[in-house]
Each structure stands twice: as C-alpha cells, then as structure tokens.
Amino acid sequence: MTTTAEKPRIRVRAGSSVVPAPQTAPRVRASYMRDTPSGVIASRPASLREHRDEIRRVWWRAAALAMDMLQNSGRLRGAADQIIADTVGVELQLNPRPDLSAFGYDQKEAIEWTRLVKSRFKVWAWSPLECDFRAKFTLPQHTDVGVRHWLAFGESVGIVEYLPLSQRLPGTKTGTKFLLLSPQKLVQETNEASGLYQGITHDAYGRPTHYRFEERRDGITVKTDYAARDADGRQLVMHAFDPFSSDDVRGLSPLATTFRKYLMAENTEDAIAQVHFMQTIYAAILKSGKPSAEAFEALSSLKESGIEGADNVAEGLMAYYGNKLERAAEAEVRYGEGAGVSHLSLDEDLEFKTISTPGGQSIPFIASLHREQARALGISYGGYTMDYTASTYASTNMENSALWPLAQRRTDRIAAPHVLVPYASWLDEEIGEGRIPFKGGYEVFLANREAILWALCQGPSKPTADDEKRAKASSERIANGTGTLERECGELGDDPEEVFESRLMWHERYVDAGMRSPFERGYGSKSSTEAQQQGASA
C-alpha cells in the first residue's frame, strides 16, 4: 500500500499573515588555514616533502650561494668572525669528566690524572706536526674552519687517521692525526637500494657505516669510502651538522633562509649608492627667449612673401636679434675649474637638474632586512651591522641573555666535535702506548672506553654590558646557594679545575713570601673610595 505525501496546512488567524524566517549566512568556524578575503594563504604555493629530500635537492645551489655571499660581503664575513668568537673564542677548553672511582682512583689521584691528560692534550692540539694530517694547522684552527664550513655548507666533516712510524714526519711522536675536509668532497650520490643516501651509506637500522669522499690523487679524481667506526667502535669520521628533521642525513647552510632578504637588502643598498653617485653629475639647462633657426628661416620667408611692409618688419627684427646676440657673446657660462656665470640676458634662465634621494623609509626597511638575517644567524643586530644607535643598557642585556644559549648550543653541537673526536683517538693512543698511565692497563680502558672518554668543551665567556654588576650577581648566587662554581666559571669561559689550581698556586706563593694573599675575602674587592670611607669611620 502506498501513501502520498500531503501538503502541510497552516492555520492563519484572520487579519494576520505568515512571514518566512530570515535566511542567515552560514557561520565560519575558527580553524587552521582559515584564509583572508584576499586569499593570501591560497596564493602561496607549498608542498610537503621529506626534509632530507629537500636538502638533497637544494644542497649544491645553496652551498654555492652561501659561499659566494661569504666571499663577497664584508658584513657577512664579519658576522662569520663574530659567530666564531661567540662560539669558540680563542680555543675550546677541554674539560674531561671521567668517573675514575670505579678503577681504584681516589679524588686526589683522579684530579692529578685529569690534569695530566689536559696538559698533554693542549700541547698536542697546538702542534700542527702532531695533530694535523697535513701538518699545517692547529686543532683550534680546525675548529674555526669547521664553523665556517657549517655557515657555508651546513656541515663540517673530518677524518681521524693513524699514521705508523714509517709515515710520520721527523720529530713526530704521535700517530693520531685529524684531517678536515671540505663538505663538497662528500659526494651527492644516492642509491637507496644499497643504503647510500647523499654520499653516506646506512645499514638497515639507519646507522651510518661509510662516508664516500671524492679525492684527488696524483691528478686523478677517485672516490673512497671511509668507515664511520672501526671494529672496536672508535669513531673515525666526524660529521657535525644541525639536523632539522629526525630523518636528515646532511646539513644545510643557515644562510639558506636569508638568501631572499639578503639579496633584497644588497640590491636596495646598491640602488641607493647609484643615486648618490649620480647626484655628483648634474645637467645645466639654459632657457632663453631667443628664436631658433626655424624662426630666422621664417623671417626670410616673410621678406620674400611680397606683403606690404614685410621687408621693414623682417629687417627690424633681424637687427634687434643681432644686437641681442652681440651682447650675449660677451657673457659666458663656465663648467669645471673656475666655474661661474658672468651675465645672462633678461629673458634667460639657467637651471640645474639633480636626482632626488630615496625617502626616509629606505633606512628602516633595510634595517628590518638586516634584523631577519641577524636572527637567522643567531647574532645580535648590533653585532651584525655595527649599528648601536638605538641600543640601551637594558636592550643589550636582553640581547645577550637571548643569544647566549644559542652560542652555547653551537659550541656543543657544531664546534665541540672538532675537539672531542680527535681527543678520543689521541687518548686511546696515549694510554695504549703507555705515555699516560692508567690503572688496570689498556685492557681496562678499552672495556670502559666511553665512560673514561667523557668530556665537555668550554667556550668563551658570556658577553655583558657591565662587568661589575655581573661580578656582584655571581658572588650573590654563590653566597645564597643558588649558583655553582662550574656554572659561574662557565659563563666566564674558564675551567673550574684550572681556576682552583691557579688560585691555590698563587695563594700559597704569596703566603710563603710573607705577603697578603689577594684571594682573601674582601681584599682588593672594594674601591679606594669605600676603603677611605671605612678608614675615616674607624
């Protein structure tokens, strides 16, 4: 049985009517990717790819642009030096932190052993003959070059080699050498079927096993695979970069995000410079009421027209202008040396056309571009541009506080591997050869290698706008128990162990000489004015 739909009936009271409900516009709910009426989001093209694929696609071009800008920009070269100064300073201080209590060392013996390791390593690191494979550079120089490589290529690579006695130069005592290579020598080949991606071979778990470098030997270019680690787990290849994604294999220059704005700022500055250059060239225009050659031709035609009285008019005008030209010949307008204007006729006007300079909006526009570049590089705007006109004490302190963790992070992630990786192989050789004694011998060291090799690298001191205020704040933190010697010494770029040993040595030397120690609390820490006031009150 089928039923038909009936039309709904609405009863309406007499004298009234039915008004339909108004149609309301659909409500727009707040959500991600909600565009503006101008469609600014929709107009921006974007696609999602694996970050390592994106790095592989642009690596060579980005490295070429970054290297070109670093080589042709004094501002970027200075910024690179500033980053090295903030990250490395003069050199990174090695601070070994092994726990030797499990190997029969008491506290005093552990301190003595650590002091011996640090002193011997410093001698090795500052001797190009000992530390450098090419026998040219010191380890601090390698660290500086590695940071520059990171700026240009986004990564730094090096190889640890052991040279036998037959291959060492005369006078060389150690066989551990560090070879720093340009990242462009690490090939861009990819074969995911064999685990090779952008020059690095990985195993089934994604662990790097070999690095393929392009070398030039006897004029012939060859490709050589270097093992990431040896059979005992020693790290042989140092690869320092800052990954953006967990799948990243290679690094990318931090300048890559600044290319567009940097080139915009450079083009703007070039345009302003061209305007200033062109302002030195001016155009002189002499406005005159004298007739041109066409006017004199018209007067000649007037004489030949046959009109009554035309001859007299033409001859009168010719005489008038002839007189004017004779007077104008006596005047002159000179340019160059001895420039000047001696006389102009009543109906003449001399104008100088110049080029107007850009408006005042160009300076803040360029400053905004420079701020973005400084932010991407992790340095202050003042340090990038040397412009401190708008800086204050408070703003300088805020800049230092915000940028100091970035400098420490670069020290740990980028600069420190240039010291820690060769240090591990060097200490392995020193203990294995018996030049540095170790309880239990080399076998015990090899079985506990990672725990004994644990070390940190200390960078330069934290910048400050007022040394006195920082010193007082440091003393207050130590006095109230909220600070540690490691932290306070670390902000100054000092090793707490070296500070203690130095203070103890000089304290005992002063006391043994019958002099007052400068390390006594309160001695030498007050100004002469305060001392005089205290003496007067006493």
From TrEMBL:
<protein>
    <submittedName>
        <fullName>Phage portal protein</fullName>
    </submittedName>
</protein>
<feature type="region of interest" description="Disordered">
    <location>
        <begin position="461"/>
        <end position="494"/>
    </location>
</feature>
<dbReference type="GO" id="GO:0019068">
    <property type="term" value="P:virion assembly"/>
</dbReference>
<feature type="compositionally biased region" description="Polar residues">
    <location>
        <begin position="525"/>
        <end position="538"/>
    </location>
</feature>
<dbReference type="InterPro" id="IPR006429">
    <property type="entry name" value="Phage_lambda_portal"/>
</dbReference>
<dbReference type="Pfam" id="PF05136">
    <property type="entry name" value="Phage_portal_2"/>
</dbReference>
<dbReference type="GO" id="GO:0005198">
    <property type="term" value="F:structural molecule activity"/>
</dbReference>
<feature type="region of interest" description="Disordered">
    <location>
        <begin position="517"/>
        <end position="538"/>
    </location>
</feature>
<feature type="compositionally biased region" description="Basic and acidic residues">
    <location>
        <begin position="464"/>
        <end position="475"/>
    </location>
</feature>
